[in-house]
Amino acid sequence: MWLMDAGQAAVGLRPCPPPVGRPPVSDSGLSTDPWRLDPARLPKRLDLEVSDEVYAQLQSMSERTGRSISDLVGEILQQSADGQPP
Prior knowledge:
Elements: E1 2-3, E2 14-15, H1 52-65, H2 69-82
Antiparallel strand pairs: 1-2
């Protein structure tokens, strides 16, 4: 990582000093560092196989709404899981 001060813009960049110590940890043993990613909270990937007819409908919806097929399918699945009609 590099840091640059306003006065150093013409001179160049200097390396950022390495972090000191470990990131803070809560009593539960989980990191309290707000910049550290928690893999358990990341979205999960799901691969689906659909018929040509279903894909054509999704493609049509995507073109009408300007949203990606992936976004549309994610919303449809979420609505279904929440008990709402798609």
